[in-house]
Amino acid sequence: MEKVRVSYDRNYYKVFITLSEPVSFKLVKDPKHDLLALKMPLKGTYEAEYYSVLLKVGSGVLTLKVKNPKLDLARAWVSKKGRTLVVFIPFKKEGGKYVVVIDPGHGGHDAGAVYYGVKEKTINLQIAKKLAAYLKKDGRFVVYLTRSGDYFVPLGERQKFTSKVGADLFISLHANANPYKRWKRGVEFYVLSDRGVYKKFVDLAADPKEAAHFLSWSIVKDKTLRKGVLKNTLAITQEEGEDLAEALQKVWCKRLKKLLPCRGIFHRNFAVLKVPGVPTVLVEVGYMTNYTDLRTITNSYYQWLIARALYFGILDYLHLSPPKR
Ligand SMILES: [Zn+2]
Predict the structure, then answer these.
(1) How far, in Å, from the CA of 235 to the mean position of ligand 1?
(2) How much distance in Å is there from the Cα of 105 to the middle of ligand 1?
(3) Model pLDDT for residues 164-212, shown as the tens digit of each residue
(4) Are the CB atoms for 104 and 125 separated by under 8 Å?
(5) Which class is domain 98-317?
(6) Distance from residue 110's CA to the centre of ligand 1 (Å)
(7) Is the pLDDT higher at 218 or at 117?
């Protein structure tokens, strides 16, 4: 080990270790002790604390300890030249609370789909507020809405806001429409596609100013690091987004499949899903072009059921047990 550098980026720690020669390692996660261990050929012993990252080397193992780490999301990789080991450790902040961003689709001049005199933007906001209510009542969440009224917020601003508040997860709420297939019914979950990941990577790798909205400047200005960090944080967005979508769908199918059938998880290049390092999902709760669905998703009682199913899906994804009351 030649040099250790720790950077703090919103709710992540990134540890950069310069090595004297290229190494391979094995990453081991120890949730019981909040530890990350990297098994690799390292000689000697070493111990130091950087910010609140405790780093130890001994018997060929490098261990890293952080308060409240989110070990599921932790990653380690070796940068291009093979000599910089990067360890990425997200952690819970704000007194250990989870930060959830709920994004009610459309708003203001952008009504979204409009059928039978109903505007999609209204349904999205109504369900978003109900989901926020469940999360706030739970007490273990800090909840943000990208809009709390009927006004327009550009997609780019929704992404940047989500990154700025250090979201643990992001859920965008929409209602579907297909005027040519009015028989179509049910819920669909959307996760970022490979193409979406690639496009965002190319865009941000070429545009440091834009990348700085999602990563700290110390990383952005370093071309090699920027690429590695972008690749890995976008992988988190997609892979963890998939886990989140699966958890949401599982609970939904159990509780609501008769009301709003489960149509599956799909991959798309949706702009709003591109928030590096944050698991993102877009939910199309039902079809506005189907009268049965429309009646369900505009009904306040059913909206509470939808919000409750999404809330329990979030709990499942985060391995949290339902609150005792
Ligand atoms: Zn929409």
Answers:
(1) 25
(2) 5
(3) 998 999 999 999 999 999 999 999 999 999 999 999 999 999 999 999 9
(4) yes
(5) alpha beta
(6) 9
(7) 117
Taking the C-alpha atoms of residue 88 and residue 91, their distance in angstroms, rounded to an integer, is: 10
Q: Which pLDDT band, with edges at 50, 70 and 90, does 72 fall under?
A: confident
- With tokens 């960090």, the residue in question is 229
CA of residue 106 to ligand 1 center, whole Å: 6
Closest CA to 125 of 300, 245, 317: 300
Domain ranges in the chain? 3-90, 98-317
| pLDDT 10s digits, 235-278 | 889 999 999 999 999 999 999 999 999 999 999 999 999 999 89
- CA–CA dist 54, 28 (Å, integer): 16
- Ligand 1 centroid to Cα of residue 232, in Å, is 28
- CB of 48 closer than 8 Å to CB of 63: no
What pLDDT sits at residue 80?
A: 60
pLDDT of residue 227: 86
Whether the domain at 3-90 and the domain at 98-317 fall into the same CATH topology: no
Beta strand pairing call for 98-104 and 169-176: parallel
Tell me whether residue 80 is exposed, middle or buried, using C-beta atoms within 10 angstroms of its C-beta: 0 to 12, 13 to 18, 19 or more: exposed
How many whole angstroms separate alpha carbon 214 and alpha carbon 203? Answer: 12
pTM for the complete prediction? 0.87
- Separation of alpha carbons 244 and 145, rounded Å: 18
Any idea which fold 3-90 has? Answer: Immunoglobulin-like (2.60.40)
The DSSP symbol for 69 reads: B
Q: Are 281 and 244 in contact (CB under 8 A)?
A: yes
Expressed in angstroms and rounded, the spacing between residue 269 Cα and the centre of ligand 1 is 14
